[in-house]
Structure formats: C-alpha cells, structure tokens
Amino acid sequence: MSEKNNNEIESLTPENYHNWFTLYHLCQLLGNRRTIEITSKELGRLMKISQQTASRRINDLVDLNWIKRKKIGKIQKIVITEKGANLMLSTYKNLRKLLESIFIVGEVTEGMKEGGYYVAIKGYYDQFVEKLGFKPYKGTLNLKLNDMDKEILSEKMKTINPVVIEGFKDQSREYGPVLCYDVIISPFHDRKDEVKAAILDIERTHHEKNIIEILAEPYLRDRFKLKNGDKVILTLNNPGELSKNY
User: How many domains does the chain contain in total?
Assistant: First the structure.
C-alpha cells in the first residue's frame, strides 16, 4: 500500500468512525454519477438519525476534506474528494485482505485441460452423474491456493469422507480412483451466488501442489464471469460430516 493510503488509514480514528459511516452511505448513493444531491433530512432518514445529526456529519466531512459541498437552497451537491476516495479504497483493501484470511480463497488460473480429459471419459463421467447428483461440465475450473489456504483445505478434507469414483480398465489402459469432496463455490464479491461443486482429488496429476480442480454442472467461468486472477470462495461440508456416497 502506498504511503499516501497509509496516511488515510491513520486518519480513521475511533472519533471518526461515525464520519466514515456517513461517507460510506454517501458513496452508496453515487451509482454512476459524480455528484450526490441530497438534503440533510434525506440523509438523516437514510441513516436513521436526526436531521440535525446528519447536517453535523456533513459539516464534519467537509472539515475533514473527505467531501466538497455546494448548497443550493436545501439541496446539497456533494462530491467525494480524492482524500475521501483514498480512504474508502484503503478500507476496501484492508477488508478484502481480512476476508481472504478468514475464508478459503482460490485464484482462477489457466489449466492444463487435464481435468476435462478425465471428466469426459465415460467410466468416470457416468459415476460423476450418479454419485455427485449433477451432470458435470466436461472440464474443470483450476484454482490456485496460497500455502496457508491449501494447508487448511487439506486438513478439512481429512475430516470428510469423500465421494469415491471407482477406478476401472478399458482396452487401452487402467484408470485409478478419483476422490471428490462436496464444496460450495461462490465469487468473492457475492457469496450469495452459490453453485454446488466438487473438488477433484486425482492421483495422477501434473499440476503444481497448490492447484486444485473444481467440477460443477455449469461452466463456472461463464456462470460467474470469471477471468484469470479472479478470486472465489470455497466452503466445504462441515468437518466431520460424512458423505452419503462414501
């Protein structure tokens, strides 16, 4: 983080928490506009505070140089200053870093098409449909985890009985078993947008140790509008919860 943003963080003292919350509400009103037009009465109604308190909060934001204001009658035309915008950006970065330390977060990365190869094999595909309860897209979403998240995920997976996709032989070769772990996947920016999926634990794989493959019914890159570098949240079944397909 730049020195400038660090200075903005320092200005967010406990005495200014209520002013930050007011700035947050004003930013929510921006949409695609550059200017907010609002009365202190409207702001008070929005924040569930009195008109007098709302008026005082706006004055405080002006004094802090977090906003600029021009009065036209009862209407106040408000613009978020660079200082106010930097403060919101710094807060966002800190919150994002905090959330990434709480949840298991994977970063979308380019795959080797290895997962798609295995999924498309009939001996595997039919079992995926039967045992996972969905018809998977014939490809996987590859996610890169940091060392800590990979370790946490591995520990959680040890407490869950996997769905076992049995190995088999065909005319050309022998295929080993594949272990699947039920997981819910959602884009980092919207946890409510969830898709049931499965982590594939393939014995024979050429991926780096921190790369995992996710199997789901929809094509997840399209479903969540993902590109390389985007982040998603993974939520496993509760530790100790046994799969009915084990």
Answer: 2
